[in-house]
């Protein structure tokens, strides 16, 4: 297989003809493992380039801090000399008062220099994050109007102009906002922002309820939810609620006169200088690039499809014979007890054999996703050429547990499943090996990368629904 064609396929840039060639190649025995290795090498290269940029930035910052440190030492030396002189000469309250004044000014200068140095190198706070409103957590093909922005850099108040690409901001209060260029977004405070134009998708946990996004036409206050917004050049604003609910009110008008609650599965629209908010058809196509990144999935390649958000697009109500569907289920859920799963270690697994229990320990905050190959209609056991799909998914956080057995899937539906999912009583999961299977059946392969971020699947659906639940650690 041509490495260049394989790289284009991994990056989602292959032509339809090239993608078909790669799919045919992946169908041959043994090639799935080579595909996973190539994907790992590509991911390692990206991380190496990112580390190099960070190191170069750090070297420049340290050089600047050396200059500031020299100035600081000079101020301190002058301060000590001045104070000693005044201690010898002080014969009146006036002299003492002057010494204190000079010392205070010098201390302010030192503190200012130290703060300046910290801002240059983004000194982390107690939890490892910079003391700022938000962090540029992820960007893909992003070009900014004011020059290059470093991934992982702190972001404070001000206007961000994203010309092209995707960029996700993680706010200190827990809110996540993904911009899709071209977009102009302004941070006014910890929980108050403005979308001047463009598209965004937001995920707001309980810790950030009250998060507000203002446009030229409306003010949107989140009530603990996920939603999308788009603003046109004329200020026309669409608000689409994926989960939960938001309050929408007309900009510049008393909220009590125009406030409207919009619940999941609904959308509204309004324009600048109008006095009404209209319901429109719930459509999520425009958010298909931004929403996966907001929900923690950075890349989906091959025959993977990230399902549109909304109450109708949930497990049990959505079938596809050609692609592995990705359903976001729960976000920011804290495990109160240990969770029994099938797999926790990186590696390659064929038909996920469930010989024993593995544990994900209580106290972790996790997201859960369900990956599914469920052909349209029901297939007989002896159906020839059953649907098969191969794909790869990369998460922003490490995978700490995989659940692939019917029993454990059912046991965790209430805890980790989608609140509107209809899981039914069908056989589900990644089937275990049967006595009649050959040593290398060439199907139902699961590969978890060494860094736990990338999951590769090769599934072939039969009489059961192929499903695997993925548990991703968000934080302690």
Write a concise keyword list for the protein shown above:
five-stranded antiparallel sheet; alpha+beta; 476 residues; Jelly Rolls; 7 helices
Characterise the protein shown here.
This protein has 476 residues and is of the alpha+beta class. Helix 1 (3-10) packs across helix 3 and helix 3 (31-89) packs antiparallel against helix 4 (93-121). It has three domains: 1-121; 134-287, Jelly Rolls, CATH 2.60.120; 295-475, no CATH class. The protein has seven helices and 25 strands. The strands form four sheets. Strands 1, 2, 3, 4, 5, 6, 7, 8, 9, 10, 11, 12 and 13 form a 13-stranded mixed beta sheet that branches. Strands 14-21-24-23-18 form a five-stranded antiparallel beta sheet.
Strand and helix map with partners:
Elements: H1 3-10, H2 16-26, H3 31-89, H4 93-121, E1 134-144, E2 154-155, E3 158-171, E4 176-189, E5 192-203, E6 212-214, E7 218-222, E8 226-231, E9 237-243, E10 245-250, H5 255-258, E11 260-263, E12 266-270, E13 278-280, H6 290-294, E14 297-302, E15 304-306, E16 320-334, E17 339-341, E18 347-350, E19 358-360, E20 365-374, E21 388-395, E22 399-403, H7 406-416, E23 445-448, E24 454-460, E25 466-475
Parallel strand pairs: 5-6, 15-16
Antiparallel strand pairs: 1-2, 1-3, 3-4, 4-5, 5-8, 6-7, 7-10, 8-9, 9-12, 10-11, 12-13, 14-21, 16-20, 17-19, 18-23, 20-25, 21-24, 22-25, 23-24
Mean pLDDT: 78
Task: Provide a count of the helices.
Answer: 7
What percent of the residues sit in helical stretches (DSSP H or I)? Answer: 25-40%
Major sheet: size, sense and barrel closure? 13 strands, mixed
Number of domains: 3
């Amino acid at each position: 297989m041509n490495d260049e064609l394989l790289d284009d396929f991994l990056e989602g840039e292959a032509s339809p003809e090239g993608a078909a060639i790669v799919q045919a190649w992946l169908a041959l025995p043994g090639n799935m493992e080579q595909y996973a290795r190539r994907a790992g090498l590509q991911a390692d290269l990206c991380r190496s380039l990112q580390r190099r940029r960070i190191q170069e930035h750090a070297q420049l910052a340290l050089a600047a801090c050396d200059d500031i440190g020299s100035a600081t030492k000079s101020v301190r030396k002058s301060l000590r000399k001045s104070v000693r002189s005044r201690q010898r000469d002080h014969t009146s309250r006036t002299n003492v008062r002057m010494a204190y004044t000079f010392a205070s000014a010098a201390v302010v200068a030192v503190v200012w220099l130290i703060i300046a140095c910290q801002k240059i190198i983004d000194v982390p706070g107690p939890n490892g994050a910079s003391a700022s409103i938000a962090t540029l957590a992820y960007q893909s093909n992003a070009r900014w109007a004011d020059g290059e922005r470093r991934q992982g850099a702190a972001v404070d108040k001000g206007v961000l102009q994203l010309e092209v690409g995707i960029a996700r901001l993680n706010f200190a209060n827990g809110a996540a906002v993904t911009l899709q260029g071209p977009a102009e977004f302004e941070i006014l405070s910890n929980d108050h922002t403005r979308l001047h134009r463009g598209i965004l998708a937001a995920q707001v946990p309980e810790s950030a309820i009250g998060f507000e996004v203002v446009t030229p036409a409306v003010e949107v206050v989140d009530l603990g939810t996920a939603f999308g917004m788009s603003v046109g050049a004329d200020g026309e604003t669409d608000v689409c609620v994926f989960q939960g609910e938001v309050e929408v009110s007309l900009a510049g008008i008393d909220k009590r006169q125009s406030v409207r609650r919009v619940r999941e599965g609904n959308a509204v629209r309004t324009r600048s200088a109008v006095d009404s908010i209209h319901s429109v058809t719930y459509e999520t196509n425009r958010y298909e690039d931004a929403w996966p990144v907001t929900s923690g999935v950075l890349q989906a390649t091959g025959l993977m499809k990230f399902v549109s958000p909304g109450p109708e697009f949930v497990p049990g109500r959505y079938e596809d014979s050609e692609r592995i569907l990705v359903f976001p289920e729960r976000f920011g859920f804290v495990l109160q007890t240990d969770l029994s799963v099938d797999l926790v270690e990186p590696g390659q697994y064929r038909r996920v054999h469930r010989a024993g229990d593995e544990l994900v320990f209580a106290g972790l905050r996790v997201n859960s996703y369900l990956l599914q190959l469920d052909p349209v209609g029901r297939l007989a056991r002896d159906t020839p050429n059953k649907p098969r799909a191969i794909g790869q998914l990369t998460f922003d956080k490490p995978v700490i547990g995989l659940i692939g057995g019917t029993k454990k899937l059912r046991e965790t539906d209430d805890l980790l499943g989608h609140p509107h999912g209809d899981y039914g009583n069908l056989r589900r999961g990644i089937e275990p090996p049967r006595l009649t299977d050959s040593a290398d059946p060439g199907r139902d392969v699961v590969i978890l990368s060494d860094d736990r971020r990338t999951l590769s699947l090769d599934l072939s659906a039969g009489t059961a629904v192929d499903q695997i639940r993925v548990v991703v650690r968000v934080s302690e």
